[in-house]
Amino acid sequence: LMSAAEATAGVAAEPATGVTGEATAGVAPEPAAGKAAGANRDRRDREWTAYRDFKDAGPLVGYYASNVEGAIAAAGAGRVSDLARAADALGAGPPDADFPYDLTRVLPVLPDLPALLLFNDADEMFPARCALLFQRRAQRYLDMESLAIAGALTAEAVSRGITPRTSRRSARHTG
Question: Phi and psi at residue 110, in whole multiples of 5°?
Answer without folding.
Answer: -135, 160
